[in-house]
Amino acid sequence: MSEAFKRGDNLKDIIEQIIEIDSLAFENKKKNEEYLKNKRQEYENKIIQYRESMLQNAKAESEKILSQISEINIDKTLVNQQSIDAKIESKYSQIEDEMVKIIFDRLFAMNATHSTDALHPLEK
């Protein structure tokens, strides 16, 4: 019986070792799952932060571009306004010169003839 007893003890030891190995494997599995869960959450948080950062950068860049477009439109309007102002000034100068000439001609014609009937040749 000592041989059978030894085999029983050996079998009991083997079963205990299997149980211990199984318990360690189960604990390792739980630790690995927890580690993977934490890593997954960490990377998801990084992705969220990256996405938010990129959205903020894109928003800032789009506002900058919009501002530049607005400035270009304002500058274009200003240039157009300055061009119109220059054209008006030029036309005014032309008309002013003609009007001064007509007025002086009438004044001198009135003084010379003392009549209001004398018209400038351009007015005939």
What do these coordinates show?
There is one protein chain. By secondary structure, the chain is mainly alpha-helical. The chain has one helix and no strands. It has one helix at 2-113. The termini are far apart.
Write the layout of secondary structure elements.
Blueprint: H1 2-113
Question: Concise description?
Answer:
With 124 residues, the chain is mostly helical. It is 90% helix and 0% strand. The chain is built from one helix and no strands.
Q: Which structural category do the helix and sheet elements fall into?
A: mainly alpha
What's the Cα radius of gyration? Answer: 50 Å
Q: pLDDT average, as an integer?
A: 81
> Biggest β-sheet: count, sense, barrel?
none
So what's the overall shape?
Answer: rod-shaped
How far the N terminus sits from the C terminus, by CA atoms, comes to: 152 Å
Defining traits:
single chain; mainly alpha; 1 helix; about 0% strand
